[in-house]
Design goal:
The protein is α+β, with helices and mostly antiparallel strands. It contains 13 helices and 23 strands. Helix 2 packs across helix 13, helix 5 crosses helix 10 (about 265-270) and helix 6 (about 195-200) runs antiparallel to helix 13. It is globular, with a radius of gyration of 22 Å. Bound molecules: FE2/S2 (inorganic) cluster and fe (iii) ion. Keywords: 2Fe-2S, Aromatic hydrocarbons catabolism, Dioxygenase, Iron, Iron-sulfur, Metal-binding, NAD, Oxidoreductase.
Length: about 425
């Protein structure tokens, strides 16, 4: 922790490369960050009916996100109370209970203990049902996004999200959304913070990493990535909004629902969106990619991302595609195709980003072997004045090229992982 405080200097725009892959740092992260923060686990539309469940991760902890027979959403450690065997072995399902594959203990979808095989014979001395309840995390939802935390003393979810709620309303609260299919998952040999900070704060890379998009004429060349706003939403959350002034980019059929759910300021910003990316601290990212010409129409495929650590230098990437439930069929259909072509395992853009993150991770591992820390530059926009007349919450900067949100990400990260000493 002391070394972290000496070398991680977000306010000076300096982050040492070793923090991305140091195994000791990673152990602290699992305990103090993934063990305590609010973490995204599922979208409500993935478990619409009583008895539905999906299996997810909170850091490295495998959990069951369950809608009980009573309709209530609960999040349980996926671990049997008898000997700790994994309880739900499938990725998703529906049923009143889970039966452990080891000795057959059975638990209801509200977490209570239901029974054990040969119970009267095997446990003739009796079994205390209460002590056998599944270990349950605290959970809550915002805009259809279900979050959970192991921290009983954590602030309410809405406080944790803070200023980010204003933007989440635009992203997922503007309409009723549904997840299309099941999320794609793949392994990337990258430290988890690299994609998280990229989505939170890095509009700058698009002009270089994804330059071919402009060359192919898929986005307008010069300005791409530059015009818009950079938002430090507090608590380590960050986002960027690219803007255009050609008017609304979505099917007019959806407008009424948007009007009902958004304030006039939020609606005005929505209409100007060219792209919209961000990260809910620590590891939930989102993206409305640039609207592209596809199948003769203008579409975009919105995605949620989660960067689940599976070690200090590797992640399981999760990718959900979301669409408005009430959208016209062509929007759903073409949006799904656009999503598949741009991001995910087969996406044109995904590969570019992945290559960066892999190489950065390799170099972080090298930095670990050197005595002197290799300091990386996070100084873009230091000292720049935020806007005063922006209607949304958070600290907002004019222009997307800025690293203020990355500095805030690492400040929040440092406070949690190394303890506040400021
Ligand atoms: Fe689950 Fe024994 S470990 S029943
Ligand atoms: Fe990118």
């Amino acid at each position: 922790a002391e070394r972290l405080h000496k070398t991680v200097l977000p306010e000076e725009g300096l982050i040492p490369a070793y923090v991305h892959t140091d195994p000791d740092v990673y152990r602290l992260e699992l305990q103090r960050l993934f063990g305590r923060a609010w973490l995204f686990v599922a979208h409500e539309s993935e478990i619409p009916k009583p008895g539905d469940f999906v299996v997810r991760d909170m850091g490295e902890a495998n959990v069951i996100v369950s809608r009980g027979d009573d309709g209530k959403v609960r999040v349980f450690l996926n671990s049997c109370r008898h000997r700790g065997m994994k309880l739900a072995c499938e990725d998703l399902g529906n049923g009143p209970s889970w039966r452990c594959a080891y000795h057959g203990f059975t638990f209801r979808n509200d977490g209570s203990f239901l029974g054990a095989p040969y119970q009267r014979f095997a446990y003739s001395e009796g079994l205390d049902r209460e002590s056998l309840r599944l270990v349950e995390a605290r959970s809550d939802a915002y805009g259809g996004l279900i979050f959970a935390t192991w921290n009983r003393a954590a602030e309410p979810l809405a406080d944790f999200l803070g200023a980010m709620t204003w933007y989440l309303d635009i992203l997922v609260g503007r309409a009723e959304f549904e997840v299309v299919g099941t999320p794609q998952r793949w392994i990337v040999p990258t430290a988890w913070k690299l994609p998280a900070e990229n989505f939170a704060s890095d509009a700058y890379h698009t002009a270089t990493t994804h330059a071919f998009l402009a060359k192919l004429g898929l986005v307008s060349g010069v300005d791409f990535g530059r015009l818009g706003y950079h938002v430090d939403a507090g608590n380590g959350h960050g986002l960027g909004i690219g803007v255009q002034d050609d008017g609304p980019w979505y099917p007019p059929e959806l407008r009424q629902e948007y009007e009902r759910n958004l304030s006039p300021d939020q609606l005005a910003l929505l209409d100007r969106i060219k792209n919209f990316h961000g990260n809910v601290f620590p590891n939930l990212s989102f993206l409305i990619p640039n609207v592209i010409e596809f199948g003769g129409r203008r579409v975009t495929g919105m995605t949620l991302r989660q960067w689940q650590p599976i070690g200090p230098d590797s992640i399981q990437a999760w990718s959900w595609h979301l669409v408005e439930k009430g959208a016209p069929e062509w929007w759903k259909e073409l949006g799904r195709k656009a999503y598949i072509q741009t991001f995910g395992t087969s996406g044109m853009l995904e590969q570019d980003d992945t290559e960066n993150w892999e190489a950065q991770t390799r170099n972080s591992q090298i930095a670990l072997t050197l005595d002197e820390p290799v300091m990386l530059h996070y100084g873009m926009g230091i000292g720049r004045e935020p806007m005063r007349d922006f209607p949304g919450l958070g600290t907002v900067y004019d222009g997307k090229f800025n690293e203020a949100a990355a500095r805030s990400f690492y400040r929040r990260w440092l406070d949690l992982v190394a303890g506040e000493t400021r």
